[in-house]
Amino acid sequence: MLLLVAFGALILLTAWLPMVLKEAPLSLPIVCIAIGAAAFWFFPEIPVPHLPAELPLVEKMTEFVVIISLMGAALKIDRKVGWRRWITTWRLLAIAMPLTIAALWASGYALLGLSGASALLLAAALAPTDPVLASDVQVGPPKSGEEDDTRFALTSEAGLNDGLAFPFVMAAIAMSQSGGSLGSWVAHWVAVDIVWRLAAGIAIGAALGYGLGWLVFRIPNRAKLSRTGDGFVALGITVVVFGVSEAAHGYGFVSVFVAGLALRAAERDHEYHQTLHDFAEQLERLLMMTLLVLFGGAISAGGLLNSLSISGAVYAGLAIFAIRPFAAKTATNGRRSPSSCCREKIVSVAATRHRNAIPAAGAASAKRPYVR
Q: Each residue of 198-257: pLDDT tens digit?
């Protein structure tokens, strides 16, 4: 009965907290972790989540939250895909993320004493900014007009960088299996883990997104899905696209985000996009809060951070306050739009998003890309 009451209270908080925190200098994820820590501390009769023993379940749950978030992020974006229109996004993906991975890799090797493969795996897991934990700094709902350059760059980059971290994860796995020999795995890694998986993810996402967009918006009037007004269609599209992409050995995270962009492009100004987005956002928020409350309980009552060392704390500090801001600033140097003022805002907000993502990544693998 206590668990039922707690879950009901969590649902109410899901609706109430975003309004309360809108002008506060706190993010919703941080508050959720604090609530979980306090609840499990003051009510010891609640079963303590033992995350290390439940990693497969945690992995699936966090993966599900991420793909829902990716669909919601794609549906928010009003701007059409293009080289010049998305130039800041391409810079963040092509420059900031590899720089972040390289710096975290070297830091993990030097500070934590990890092997090269383990340090690379940790770096690839922590480098992407997060579409789930950073919704407060993303663009607004579809056609809301809340899409300045800074918010757009952060939203579009977050939609793609989780998927684009996968090649680095696969490289770390290949390194660990090859005993450090480069020649035995590099060719396969480039051909399969970079070229094929990325190409398949993009192609499947675009094809299914446009195809399902036709079903939603284009087929004869009485049969099109948009007439239903059901927001859970977004969930169906997300799961279908992710499943097909993973079955084809593509990157499912990439496919889901591309499918969302393609669905939006199929009928850019239709009001049904708002319904799909609202459902995805509400489901994402509820699942995210549930996971982070459990994470807070695992910290306070489960002793999840008992093994944290000084070197680990230094590593986290470098990642949050030095490595990520430096990489973002380097990526946006020389840009005339957004202006230098906006560039500084991108650097600052990207670092804040990274700070929000670090705790969840360290304990529950919420930021670790899913590896089949």
A: 999 999 999 999 999 888 888 877 767 788 888 899 999 999 999 999 999 999 999 999
The DSSP line for 189-221 is IIIIIIIIHHHHHHHHHHHHHHHHHIIIIIS-T
Structural domain boundaries in the chain: 62-304+314-364
Are 24 and 284 contacting, i.e. CB atoms less than 8 angstroms apart? Answer: no
How far does Cα 40 stand from its chain's mean position?
27
User: Among 135, 93, 370, 89, which residue's Cα sits nearest to residue 256?
Assistant: 370
* Nearest-angstrom CA–CA distance, 170 and 99: 18
Tell me how far CA of residue 275 lies from CA of 33, 43, 226, 258, 270, in angstroms.
29, 38, 9, 19, 10
| Residue recorded with tokens 């799909």 | 276
Output the pTM of the full model: 0.84
Cβ-based neighbours of 277, under 8 Å, separated by 6 or more: 72, 75, 76, 141, 142, 234
Q: Report which residue type is found at 302.
A: G
Tens digits of residue pLDDT in 90-101: 999 999 999 999
